[in-house]
């Protein structure tokens, strides 16, 4: 076990979204000073682009740009600082990020900054005095923030008091972070229950239904308005409701890959450990979902098992390649759960996202031609995003109406009497969304 003396001064967490606040809070709970880096903005990304060589993917530029931007502040101490970057594997250029970060730090006189990837081999360095407890706290935070975000997105388009839902979300986020900092995971459940009451007190009117739009892509792009081109607010202003790909789905997918890798290497003990960790994570999700179930409009509020996502991916992509396949599986699941349109956020120069875009037509063909739109973030801004979203929302609205009409047709009797004349109704249509078998 690590000790407080073994830990770095301050650990800086890349700003992927509010979920990362849970990581920082859990580290602080057990003695490790931690801070989330500035959210990606034109200024931080410009800093990253300055040290890049023109062939890096967006994620690497986001991270190093945020770190260098923070290092410019007068209270930054390179000798007492570490950049938190979890180890990556599989076929992604992310495996080369660490060397890029070191070069960029050294070029800016920050060679003393440590880059840490906590795992068993280094005693989970940088995760405080009780790393196993910290990991559990982080997972509680991930799920709680996932749920707060879902409630916010499902209720905000229908609120009668403008801004009230956003305020309830911010209050809920602060409660969850404060609960994590106590080091007691049960307090996260209590904080979420309190937040549920605040959301419920915000009056809403669902009399005018809206098509639900699923936003998917690389997870590091989906929780920052600047990076997803403010698509959420634009979709809501155009009459839609948004569902964002959840953090939990990605981590269940990673668990599955880790277990398969361990089994392939003949390391059954590691495979069993990953399987038990995955079961624990699903149980935490179930406990937290139960706290706010009455506020969620999802037919199935729980994330499916990773095997469902894997089966969905296999329709379109070899699972051994990985890079690019996850988005395809997520798209099928979003459509299955009721989305009427799929918006794919593509970071410039990301091979996985480019592959996922290329698979879009095949995916749509299996999903009754569900509307699909790719929007590309390249740090130059988008001048026609609003116009494309307007056309996309129109298509999604028509798609949703067709689904409703088809559902009504299947629920009616096959024939009826009209002035004693028998009139045959159209045959029931096939299910719009093919179901995956676990």
Description of the molecule:
- The chain is 50% helix and 10% strand.
- It has 438 residues and is of the alpha/beta class.
- The strands form 3 sheets. Strands 2-1-3-4 form a 4-stranded parallel β-sheet, sandwiched between helices.
Terminal CA distance reads: 38 Å
Tally of DSSP helical segments = 14
Query: What sequence of helices (H) and strands (E) makes up the elements?
Result: EHEHHEHEHHHEHEHHHHEHEHEE
Question: Which stretches of 5+ consecutive residues score pLDDT under 50?
Answer: 1-5, 413-438
Task: Using the alpha-carbon principal axes, give the shape.
Answer: globular
The CATH topology of the domain at 210-246 and 303-438 is: Rossmann fold
CATH architecture tag of the domain at 210-246 and 303-438? 3-Layer(aba) Sandwich
* Record field, number of beta strands: 10
Q: Which secondary-structure class do the elements indicate?
A: alpha/beta
The CATH class assignment of the domain at 210-246 and 303-438 is Alpha Beta
| Beta-strand percentage range | 5-15%
Main sheet: strands, sense, barrel: 4 strands, parallel
Strand order of the largest sheet: 2-1-3-4
Mean pLDDT: 87
Relative helix content: 40-55%
Computed CA radius of gyration, to the nearest angstrom: 23 Å
């Amino acid at each position: 076990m690590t000790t407080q003396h073994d830990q770095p001064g301050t650990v800086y967490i890349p700003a992927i979204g509010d979920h990362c606040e849970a990581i920082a809070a859990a580290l602080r709970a057990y003695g490790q000073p931690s801070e989330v880096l500035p959210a990606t903005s034109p200024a931080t990304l410009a800093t990253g682009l300055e040290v890049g060589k023109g062939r890096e993917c967006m994620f690497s530029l986001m991270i190093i740009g945020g770190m260098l931007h923070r290092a410019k502040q007068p209270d930054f101490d390179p000798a007492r600082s570490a950049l938190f970057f979890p180890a990556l594997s599989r076929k992604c250029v992310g495996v080369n990020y660490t060397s890029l970060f070191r070069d960029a730090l050294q070029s800016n006189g920050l060679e003393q900054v440590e880059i840490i990837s906590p795992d068993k081999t280094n005693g989970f360095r940088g995760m405080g005095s009780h790393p196993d407890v910290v990991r559990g706290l982080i997972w509680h935070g991930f799920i709680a923030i996932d749920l707060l975000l879902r409630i916010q997105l499902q209720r905000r388009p229908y609120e009668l008091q403008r801004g009230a839902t956003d305020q309830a979300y911010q209050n809920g986020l602060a409660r969850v972070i404060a609960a994590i900092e106590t080091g007691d995971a049960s307090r996260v459940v209590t904080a979420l229950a309190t937040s549920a009451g605040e959301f419920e007190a915000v009056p809403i009117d669902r009399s005018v239904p809206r098509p639900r739009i699923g936003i998917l892509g690389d997870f590091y792009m989906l929780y920052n308005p600047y990076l997803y081109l403010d698509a959420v607010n634009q979709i809501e202003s155009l009459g839609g409701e948004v569902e964002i790909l959840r953090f939990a789905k990605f981590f269940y997918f990673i668990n599955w890959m880790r277990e398969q890798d361990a089994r392939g290497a003949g390391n059954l003990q590691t495979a069993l450990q990953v399987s038990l960790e995955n079961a624990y994570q699903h149980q935490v999700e179930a406990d937290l979902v139960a706290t706010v179930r009455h506020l969620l409009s999802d037919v199935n509020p729980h994330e499916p098992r990773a095997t469902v996502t894997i089966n969905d991916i296999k329709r379109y992509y070899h699972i051994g390649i990985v890079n690019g396949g996850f988005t395809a599986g997520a798209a099928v699941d979003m459509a299955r759960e009721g989305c009427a349109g799929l918006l794919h956020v593509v970071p410039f120069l990301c091979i996985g996202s480019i592959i996922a875009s290329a698979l879009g037509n095949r995916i749509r063909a299996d999903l009754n031609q569900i509307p699909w739109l790719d929007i590309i973030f390249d740090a130059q801004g988008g001048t026609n995003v609003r116009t494309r979203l307007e056309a996309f929302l129109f298509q999604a609205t028509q798609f949703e109406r067709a689904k409703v009409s088809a559902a009504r047709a299947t629920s009616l009797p096959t024939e009826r009497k009209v002035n004693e004349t028998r009139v045959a109704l159209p045959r029931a249509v096939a299910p719009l969304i093919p179901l995956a078998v676990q």
